[in-house]
């Protein structure tokens, strides 16, 4: 009998393959980065073929490093950077353009044009999302309008679209030789093309966006068998889970009851709150999205607060300004000072996401004096993550009417002790890190294992969740309020920058 469930976790900056045992413990992993392509200011692209190659590499090397044979894996789940858009030829399997990444802002003109009729919330009732450059629908439209001959090919049914989950599943299950063209409800809910009630593509919005239905994958549950891997190190193993990365983290954090929330600290930050079997409209700048769907059971919805730049700000200080050699050094540098020295860093590099949704905002550093040094800027960069999270949490409590008692956290930045303590301080609630911090991969493995009987029920998964560390707030309320008021002031300085 197979002993493990596995996950392909295809993220914004890297791809990893992780293997878990029945208790949710990590048995092995491999991870490889891929190139970030910046052709113009505000444009961000990936090479989808490189991502596919990295995926096959980490599967092979992950199995070898863990000394695990393919026959020991019961099923594989996929989780992915959401909204990142690939369009490829059905006959050759070759992308017609680089993947346009979720952070990319090139569709701003298109989005503004669509918003002229009905405003930014034109489609919110159907899809739970504001019109924004973030989502896949406008990116598909841009590719069809800007790649020579693409629209004609699409109209002839020769092109396929997918977010990265769909691209990988199609290729892993055979590609041009019978590849399965599917996505799950969570990824489909990020395209701006799927109706939240019907869980299918919305004909009216497809028409407005100019996206032929023939390009689109079938929308399936997050936990079901889609097909078997057709070649390579995992040939014959079922692909049986598919969740967008933030929904996978919600699932891996065992947030299975309405009112349970998690926050993932990655390239960006994403807070999700389980709202149960009905979509909850947001009046506070949050997204109404799918949480997950297990087999033929009713879908579970979530409210989401998306923050574009958090961990990416640390990478920017490392790569663009050479402040630090490696990302982990940011904490050491920030600890050289006792406070932010009056500096606030608003990283609106690709506009502001929740709760503002301002495509025309750009990054600012406010409060600079001659007193300020690198340590203050490093500290302000970390604090920016905590302040943005507070803004999202405030919006979430307002929309849901639920007062959060503690926040479950995961992702790469949760090992930064300074940040986690400041996060608890600025929220005024405890912050809890689980024993397995890479809950995105774990959630995808759980979905695959549930679909194949490796785990019987979600309650089995809840029993696996364990606390690793908790940070309690230590800051006085007046200090918290003063700092947060100054942050809100700094945010306004980033507005209306792009004409």
Provide the residue-averaged pLDDT.
94
* Total strand segments: 23
Share of residues in helices: 25-40%
Whole-angstrom Rg = 22 Å
Runs with pLDDT <50, length 5+? none
- Strand content range: 15-25%
Shape: globular
Q: How many H/I helical runs?
A: 16
Structure class? alpha+beta
What does this structure look like?
- This protein is of the alpha+beta class.
- Helix content is 33%, strand content 23%.
- The chain has 16 helices and 23 strands.
- It has helices at 48-66, 108-115, 124-127, 136-146, 150-155, 164-172, 185-188, 203-209, 245-252, 311-319, 329-334, 374-400, 417-427, 439-451, 458-464, 477-492; strands at 4-10, 14-20, 26-33, 45-46, 73-80, 85-89, 99-100, 159-163, 182-184, 194-195, 200-201, 218-220, 223-228, 238-244, 261-265, 269-276, 287-292, 300-307, 344-346, 364-366, 407-410, 431-434, 467-471.
- The strands form seven sheets. A seven-stranded mixed β-sheet has the order 17-18-16-15-21-22-23. It has a six-stranded mixed β-sheet with strand order 3-2-1-5-14-13, sandwiched between helices.
- The longest helix has 27 residues, at 374-400.
Describe this protein with a few key phrases.
six-stranded mixed β-sheet; seven-stranded mixed β-sheet; alpha+beta; 499 residues; globular
Précis, in short:
The longest helix is centred in the last third of the chain and has 27 residues, at 374-400. The protein has helices at residues 48-66, 108-115, 124-127, 136-146, 150-155, 164-172, 185-188, 203-209, 245-252, 311-319, 329-334, 374-400, 417-427, 439-451, 458-464, 477-492; strands at residues 4-10, 14-20, 26-33, 45-46, 73-80, 85-89, 99-100, 159-163, 182-184, 194-195, 200-201, 218-220, 223-228, 238-244, 261-265, 269-276, 287-292, 300-307, 344-346, 364-366, 407-410, 431-434, 467-471.
